[in-house]
Specification:
The structure is a homotrimer. Chain A has about 350 residues and is an alpha/beta fold. Chain A has three domains: about 90 residues, Udp-n-acetylmuramoylalanyl-d-glutamate--2,6- Diaminopimelate Ligase, Chain: A, domain 1 (3-Layer(aba) Sandwich), CATH 3.40.1390; about 210 residues, UDP N-Acetylglucosamine Acyltransferase, domain 1; about 30 residues. Helices cover about 15% and strands about 25% of the residues of chain A. In chain A, the strands form six sheets. The first copy, chain A, has an eleven-stranded mixed beta sheet. Chain A has a ten-stranded parallel beta sheet with strand order 8-11-14-17-20-25-28-31-34-37, with no helix packed on it. In chain A, strands 9-12-15-18-23-26-29-32-35 form a nine-stranded parallel beta sheet, with no helix packed on it. In chain A, helix 2 links the parallel strand 5 and strand 6. At the B-C interface, strand 22, helix 4 and helix 5 of B face helix 3 and helix 5 of C.
């Protein structure tokens, strides 16, 4: 078993960390660091980071023994490491002390693996995992216990699949992908033809799903197979928990789908798109590159690249904020108009009389 | 293992397909068809369909070797099959070339089946599936690997239950039902009595769930058991992924619940109702037959049959669209009213002066 | 196997029930009761309850053989038990006839339990459950089949974990907790640093999750581990199905999170808070104690204690209802203002002319 967390046997000095991360330091280089934490919760011996000069005052209160600070900042109460991107440098520092838990590359004797499956070197397959016929699994990929991989699935290298995940027949998954617990990849798309008596004929979902390299998929997320061709999640896209991706959807590279987002059938989402939590996209909609979508937004029409939108149905975020601010004034507005009407009537009477 | 997709060993001619589907054709009947596709993605040898005459121009660009077109349309560049309902005919054509993956009707040696369970003929039970005491499973039903079926569950014939599904104690499931991966049927309803100190007493959830024939349930959907009687999903209703159905809910026949819909406790949904994605219904609400509910709608009151609604709280869709259009004009309206007020004041001054 | 439901071998008389529940009764004390039901669906031999005097008329139609009624009510057609809190007394009566299904405290021979795990007395571990290294499980805790418990997890006593649940490395779970099927506790938080080319660097999620005593977690709910410290669900809080709790969130004691609620990273929710279905909270937000949040509310800012809110973005529920009512009047308001403008113009012309 790998080390689980923060249980590095021996400390590193500030000087050593600075050398390993290739960044300058100031103050006592022999200060020993045994772990890492946030500014507020740090204890003696821990390393923290300051993301921006404007939070400088938080340094005063921290009990940390060293901090990574922005290049253009200064501090001398504790030793500091300086970085152009303190959060990124902190992530690298964390990796000196912490390694996420992963099982060793062994195949558990209880795992059921079809004789026709091709398993490359250094693969881990956990207890009670089921690997169907003609499945291919690349080197160093880790399948946790209780995973169901249906026939003809192809999985790349260095991919991690957590417990209770189901991967349906024929789905293709790239390298360096992480799929969290309970996710379902390749379930049938939701398509029916309605008869006149309201009964439905199931439209066969004959397509598949393609998950490209470096995608991460959250817990209990569901990604449906296409009716005819393929549902695609492009390289580097990150999907949070409980997200619904319907059949024949395509998500471009490096997009972010936050928790409980829903995307309906055949919609295309561009590259570098960011969707806030619980936002939804109707079917057959196109979202341009780098669009930002606020949480709970409802989208029924195409959105051009670089837009920022909110509301149901969506509008430009500036309009949304302006309208939202005006809403609270409507009840008063109605009263005002009523009063103005009375005043106009009076004016009209007077004019008439004269 | 059944054929997975589109891997029919030998092609069919247009003439043969026309005969098998019992529909007229025009053009070269000996043209060979090896598969099917969409109009845009079709390759040589593939069959496509045109849903309506208005899309006729798409036929020009397709590389397909034959098309199913509406009865009242004409085309002669490639052979065509004619149908009153081209999509329905296409579905039947797809079934000539494609069969969804299903395991053979065998019981895997690792499956744990209680000796008191009754398993009928030609049932498949996958690796590591657990079948509790006094469970009954009808003929030709398929249980994929890693399924948990608690005691006293009754499942009909020809039903398919995918991996990582949990079916809780005493739940009843009909014939020809499909339950996708990770779905949970019969978890405890969410009911508590609140004490004065805010602590809660759990209300025992003593009821069960009834899933009638021909229902389909999406991946990671959750359907709770009733507190006292039974949560019911009626015949032919289709439920998408990540849908929440609370305790004592009843959904009528042939309704459609799209992804991430949520229905609160004791609400009753009629027949032929269509709910768009992420729509929600509060508790103890009645939705009439054939109601259509837009995506993200929030419903807190009863809705009469045949209504079309949107918004939170819901309103008639026409009102919703009208109000939605008017919203963008509020900021200007506020300005206009302000200006009119000034003009009225001026008028009043003038009148007074005179 | 325990009794599943309502299958008590011998009936109790009204007199005996009154004695067991320590409450007064009126009418024929020897009436035999064999089960319980709701007022509408009750059959002969069943016990029902009336929550409030105002529903008194429902007693006339019930076929029940006895009823628990409010202290200040009267009825003589059937025997009645009187209680200050009829629903709470009914729950206690239900427990005389019904016991939820739980497996016997045995460890199934197929369960895979690490030799370094510590399992206390009277623990049940179901078929195909996987218990990782150094896991600790307290006495009388029940692990259903097909559960994945990663290394170093600590679980208290009398806790119930249903099938297809995943509990990730290092998570701590208290006593008397119930976790329903398919829930995921401790999946990675959703955190990335974005590079200039839009590719993302994963922020290591080194923290854990703490679930305190008497918490209940719904089916297919996901609770993420913290990036640096700990995601906390405090004592007595109840979480419904398909809820998303992001990294570093803290939920206070005795709160209620209804189905499909989503809470973004680092937000803090107070004690005794009630969130309606599909409501969402943005990141880094603080919700005071006893706040009530309507279904589908979207929260982006802190909320003081005891508030009641609705809308996206949220506002006080009274404002929300007032604005919601005014919305339908906007289209007419626009017309009215247009007409008033014309009348003002006419007045202005007349004044000028004179």
């Amino acid at each position: 078993m790998n080390k689980l967390a923060k249980d590095r046997p021996q400390p590193l000095t500030v000087k050593e960390i600075a050398r390993l991360l290739n960044c300058p330091f100031e103050g006592e280089g022999n200060t020993e660091i045994v772990g890492f934490s946030s500014l507020e919760k740090a204890k003696k011996g821990e390393l923290v980071f300051l993301s921006h000069r404007k939070y400088h005052h938080h340094l005063e209160k921290t009990k940390a023994s060293a901090a990574i600070i922005p290049q253009d900042d200064k501090y001398d109460r504790i030793p500091v490491l300086k970085s152009e991107n303190p959060h990124l440098t902190f992530i690298k520092a964390v990796e000196l002390f912490y390694e996420p838990y992963l099982p060793s590359p062994e195949i558990h004797p209880t795992a059921q693996i079809s004789p026709s499956a091709k398993i490359e070197k250094d693969v881990a397959i956990g207890a009670f995992s089921y690997i169907g016929e003609e499945v291919e699994i690349g080197a160093k990929t880790i399948i946790f216990p209780l995973v169901a991989i249906y026939p003809k699935v192809k999985i790349g290298q260095n991919t991690v699949i957590h417990s209770c995940v189901s991967i349906r027949e024929g789905v293709r998954i790239g390298n360096d992908v992480i799929i969290h617990n309970g996710a379902v990849i390749g379930s049938d798309g939701f398509g029916y033809l309605r008869n006149k008596d309201d009964s439905q004929v199931k439209i066969p979902q004959t397509g598949t799903v393609l998950i490209e390299d470096k995608v991460e998929i959250g817990a209990n997320t569901a990604i449906d197979r296409a009716a005819l061709d393929v549902t695609i999640i492009r390289k580097g896209t990150k999907i949070d928990n409980l997200v619904q991706v319907a059949h024949s959807v395509e998500i471009g590279e490096n997009s972010i789908l936050t928790g409980q987002v829903g995307i309906s059938g055949s919609s295309k989402v561009g590259k570098g798109v960011i969707m806030g939590g619980q936002a939804g996209i109707a079917d057959h909609v196109k979202i341009g590159d780098k669009v930002m979508i606020a949480a709970q937004t409802g989208i029924m029409k195409d959105i051009p690249a670089n837009s920022i939108v909110a509301g149901t149905p969506h509008m430009d975020i500036k309009d949304f904020m302006r309208i939202r601010a005006s809403l609270t004034r409507i009840p008063e507005l109605i009263k005002t108009v009523k009063k103005l009407k009375v005043r106009i009537e009076e004016l009209e009477k007077k004019i008439k009389r004269e």
